[in-house]
Amino acid sequence: MDIITSHHSPRLMDRVRQAVRLKHFSSKTIKSYLYYIHNFILFQNKQHPNVLGVAEICAYLSHLAIHKNVAASTQNVALSALLFLYKKVLSIDLPYIDNIEHARMPTRLSLSNIGNTSSCKRVASS
Hints:
The protein is an all-alpha fold.
């Protein structure tokens, strides 16, 4: 009697977890990548990324910028996570991704906007 062993391929998120560990990513990067990949799948109504493409990635990244008001660096982490998923885990080369609604960069105060030192001390002391 032959024993048939079932060889199930690992689940997608397990494959992602294994791939990021092989690349020796930091634990925070791993956590972020897993979060954004999982969030992307949920945003696309739990469709497998194999059936999704650039249009869906753009829609998700634009959603983060417009509806979730994420910082530009956060949007870049989400993009990096998705590019990693497609290239390293699914072995799918995506075309160049553009037409993304980019998150706004924070405005920074320059010294000319602040004024002289005495006005800074006055603001700091109040």
